[in-house]
Amino acid sequence: MRRFALIALPYAWLLALFLVPFLIVVKISLSDVALSIPPYFPQFSWEEGIGAFLAELDFENFVFLTQDSLYWKAYLSSLFIALVSTALTLMIGYPVAYGMARAPEEWRPTLMMLIILPFWTSFLIRVYAWMGILSQEGFLNQFLLWTGIISTPLTILNTNTAVYIGIVYTYLPFMVLPIYAALDRLDGSLIEAAEDLGCSRLSAFWLVTVPMSRNGIIAGCFLVFIPALGEFVIPSLLGGSGTLMIGKVLWEEFFSNRDWPVASAVAVVLLLILIIPIVLFQRNQQRASEADQ
Amino acid sequence: MSRFSWFNAVSLTLGFAFLYIPMIILVIFSFNESKLVTVWAGFSTKWYGELLANEAFLDAAWVTLRVAVFSSTLATILGTAAAYVLIRSGRFFGRTLFSGMIYAPLVMPEVITGLSLLLLFIGIGLERGVLTIVLAHTTFSMCYVSVVVSSRLATFDKSLEEAALDLGCSSAQAFRLVTLPIIAPAVISGWLLAFTLSLDDLVIASFATGPSATTLPIKIFSAVRLGVSPEINALSTIMISIVTVGVITASLVSKRKMVREREEELMAVRS
Hints:
- The complex is a heterodimer of chains A (293) and B (271).
- By secondary structure, chain A is mainly α.
- Chain A has 2 domains: 1-58, no CATH class; 64-292, Orthogonal Bundle (MetI-like fold).
- Helix content of chain A is 76%, strand content 1%.
- Chain A is built from 14 helices and 2 strands; from the N terminus they run αββααααααααααααα.
- Chain A has helices at 2-29, 49-56, 60-67, 69-102, 108-120, 123-134, 139-147, 160-184, 188-196, 201-212, 214-229, 233-237, 246-255, 260-292; strands at residues 32-33, 40-41.
- In chain A, strands 1-2 form a two-stranded antiparallel ribbon.
- In chain A, β1 (32-33) and β2 form a beta hairpin.
- The two termini of chain A are 35 Å apart.
- The longest helix of chain B is centred in the last third of the chain and has 41 residues, at 230-270.
- Chain B starts with 5 loop residues before the first helix and ends with a helix.
- The relative contact order of chain B is 0.13.
- The mean pLDDT of chain B is 88.
- The interface between A and B is large, with 88 and 83 residues.
């Protein structure tokens, strides 16, 4: 009996507040928009039954997504921005994780703390910090003008460049931690063996260290890519009117245009796109935990 | 992995500079006299004074704190139960669906979680406000708690529980006297994680709330949309300091605990 309650409580909570809401989104994505509250015309009711629902079913909102170029451009540009920023985060995060793994033993708790600290600080504030740095009269421009590298201020805030900087900055700890965990477990004698057998230090790095930290790299990349794809705060604070990201489009569709059926259809398609990386990520995690045992 | 090279030193320095310089600039300029946030005009704490006199911010902070305390506590109870079920209960009806629902919210984009909860609240006619934000935050943060707690449960020795049962404990007693003290650090870090996630959340709260309740992130977001403001810098500095003190204390405590445990082990070996 007690066991039943233990299972039933979290189970019922998740069914009611995770699964059911999601089914509602799917349902509304198949409904027609209406000028009422709530602003959609229900296409499905239990009274009419499933038969009537299926007879009237259309994918109007999804067809609309393919017709209006705003949406598929937003999906493509989100994918592109997420991919590029994941690559940039890897390029910056790997050397940091590598440095941490090779740092003297007594430094490591401090380095670890320095990587985790930003994770506990407000995400919104960390994005906001860049607004003062990247603006026309911001610190970066002041610094570059002072050093004489540029003569007129650069426009960085409200462009895609600022979005890349924002994503790399906020998700860097997510890339560093799994790579550090993988490198920390790496047996140093393997690299010595490679060097004894005639590898240069650089080729030992590429042939031994990088392949041995593969699981960490993959995990880090997915931990950056998946949230970056649906990101809302970064493009709306740092990006400009030309920055198309699907999280922002969904938000505006819902709050500004009040087109709930289309917003729901946008959400359903975004989730369908995300399923592939999520499944790949799960598989990588499973393989990594099997390799540990 | 030793041989710390120049390359390592440079990449660590640059990496941490990148992580910390923006926050340091933010903190420094919260003490700026001028309203222009990029021009230094002398030291002043007036923005802190204005912040503390701003009732709208104080109200929002109070709402945020209440939501975070309630939702993280609920999430810890539900998440710990879920972790216990996942690790200890073996097979039961719908287990795959259950574990799917635990992991899915971790990778679900916030806009989708927010949208779907809003549609549910409207569908059942629940008035939106503090209660609906608590419900929303509990739902996604319980999944984080359950991941943290289940990783601890998975590594601990089940025979300790069995020994307690053999010695005449009821299963509730065994949980309270044996399991709970062992998983307590994970439960506490789960609570802290849930608390931080709730304090931090903008997107889900924006969807789940109504006109009656505004949280601090919603307030900050609407203020900074218009540009940088010194009051927000002051608020950010306060929040960053609280987190910094907390994280440093936690790491000192865990370090001291590790040293003590090592000493105890040494003593045990010697005697």
